[in-house]
Model the fold of this input.
Amino acid sequence: MTPVRAKAAGMRYDASQKSSAAVENSGMSAAAGRFRAAGATPLAVQVPRALRAAGASPLAVQVPRALRAALGAAGMSALLAGGCRPGHKALARVGPLTITQEEFERKLDDVSPEYQNYVRAPSGRRQFLDVLIREKIILAAARDSEVPRSPGYRTEIKIMQEEQRQRLAEFKDDLLTKLWLESLKERSLLKVSDGEVVEYHRRHPNEVKLYHILVGSVEEADQIYKQVRGGANFQKLARTKSLDAETASQGGALPAFIYGEILPELDDVAFRMKPNEISGVIRSKFGYHIIHKEWEKQASLDLVKNRIRKLLEKNKLDAHLASIQDKYPVEVLDEEFH
Done:
């Protein structure tokens, strides 16, 4: 057992033998790769293979980019601070650094479920604290070294700060958009009544199943149309020719849809076609389509009412945006998109 002596001034910890052996013997090293912090391995436990042999840790060396993304701004701030916030019980001190009850429990919660019983037991908790103590020793030594003043460290911190700034800006925009849309619903601007759903289903009761081929030029579309009319297999052509990668692998199959759920150009044609009919070339903003209609049948209201409601909400949002668009002039600046 590694000597751990209690003194009046606090706990003195001998790191020369303890934590590596304790972790190996407890089976914690096998769990190390499974410990997660915000979806990733906690820095208190994760040790890359090349560094394990040297007894080192990511805390002493670097923060991997994937882990930065998983930790987020709050996690990185806590990592870099390392101190004890007011009102948080201190479990151990390592030089200027403190391990708080909150930090301990938070990292304990991140241990994968199959190891929870062990680390929740008294001996497991003590060994888990030893792991955190070792990491704090490494962190304290790293802070006292030349690393914080090195160009590599400063560059990585700047990269992380810029990534976090961008993520925060995107989060603010997403939250603002979400709350604005919710406010429109609360003000009934996007509200869809049950009666509107029933009426839409009365006018458009059917669902259709289509296959399509999308290409970039009318010349290629004409050539493919002639091949299909001449007996070529539509689905094979879709797999090799269609630019719609999502459907090409399925032979051009689109999900069954009700009127209004896909491009208006296809909607209008599809519901006029007969089952097993092949359309001519149809132009849309995405390119040139050829469609094959497999079937059309009536869809029960119970099965499609939620889809109808979402469709009508979208239509109302489109109408509202059209009514306010004059306030926000749009100018496409890049010639590529003219």
